[in-house]
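Fig. S4 source data, part A: sequence.
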Amino acid sequence: MDKHIIKPIQRLSLRDEVYHTLRRSIITLELQPEERLSDKDLAEKFGISRTPVREALKKLEDEGLVGSLPGSSTFVAPLHVKEAEHAFTVVAVLHALAARLAGPLLEPADIHALEECNASLQHAIEQGNAIQAVEADTSFHKVFLDVAANPEIILALERSIPKIQRLEISQFNTLNGLQSVEQHLQIMDACRLKDYDHVARLVEDNWLSLGKLLTEPSELR
């Protein structure tokens, strides 16, 4: 038997499990902005020691999702519209780059995946389900990320995307989400025409238009 066939099974550390759970809870607003986070209380809820909880909170603080003050409690970071505005500029460019790289490599199965994700997005919007809508939109753009297979783009997006998703979920009821569905249809049409520069421009516009909706004063919408 090839001794290299059997390898150690990778599993998430306790810190990573706590990190991913808290990260999702913060993004989906299950943990509200400025809500106090006690490592002692969280450790009791997770049924683990405080060390992996503290490590997870430190990682979330490094990513801007958790805040703390000297001698004070740890808390969920407040929603910062200005931070999200800056994040949209970066995210739009990175997703456009991923789309440009992925374009020539797209297979019919990838186009079908885009169609399914957009259908799921439309259904979630019509049902008023903010979390499912954000997840479907994420899955749509993840098709390009997966095909482009550039880990540096994914790594760069990980810090910015949560700030956008929190703001999107918090304002979901004030948005015209079907606008994004229509923009996705245009993106798919450009993919079928193999006009990859246009695909990239449409993807960038998709993100920038969402950013404008989320960051401009509501009275100007």
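Fig. S4 source data, part B ends here. The chain has a mean pLDDT of 90.
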